[in-house]
Amino acid sequence: MARSVTDAALLLGVLAGVDPTDPATRDAAAKGRRDYTSALDPAGLKGARLGVVRQRLMGYSALADRLMDAAIADMKAQGAIVVDPADIPTLGQFEDSELDVLLYEFKADLNKYLEWVGPKAPVHSLADIIAFNERMPDREMPYFAQELMQRAQAKGPLTDPAYLVALAKDHDLARTRGIDAVMDRYSLDALIAPTAGPPWLTDHANGDYAENGSSTPAAVAGYPHITVPGGYAFGLPVGISFFGRAWSEPTLIKIAYAFEQATKHREPPTFPPTADFTVRK
After folding, report:
1. Strand order in the sheet with 49-52
2. Superfamily of chain region 5-86+188-263
């Protein structure tokens, strides 16, 4: 969404605020801010306490792990205090409830959006979109079907007990006993991990078969997460993620900006037709 942490801070300042139709933003006026550029501190890593999440967020890509270890060394050189490991004890325990919540909320929010768009929209609900795709499968679904949309359509409203139970489970495991617990235990300012391995192919036979990614715990918790360039493997970019507790955006921006400025890993995209395997890097 942005070429740099500075651009991301500017964008967040435009997006942030209280929306009376969105309960998730009700505390934004008291705890949020609008000028995130004030957090752009090139010395932001000095004294920062960072926890490395290795279990389940590392170990699946040797290339990403190598770049992560180099990033840890760079952060230490900038004065960061690194706790390694600082694993989230509940990772791997909320995959099923996470997907349930996603399906419920996808249906509810998409329907609400289409209702807001009004009568001029060609479709007015998730059911309409599914029906549209089914009327012209050769054009809309030549390779992949719409199983997730159909599963979402089968869900009830956000007042369903099953949804409320799944949401409470996610918040307990990702927030209270997850990110908050490990950050409290080690008095951390942020958690760090590879964002994912090098980019993968999405093909017609296997679909999207990414191995892992560190956005899940923060996404399930509803907590902030920022990723910045961490280096390249065979010319393919690998990101480093910084995430933490609720309303910690200024802290994460400060730390991520300092790492970005110290390492300068970003290179303008060249859109090569394939990865460069002539040199291992």
Report:
1. 81-83, 49-52, 190-194, 236-243, 225-233
2. Amidase signature (AS) domain (3.90.1300.10)
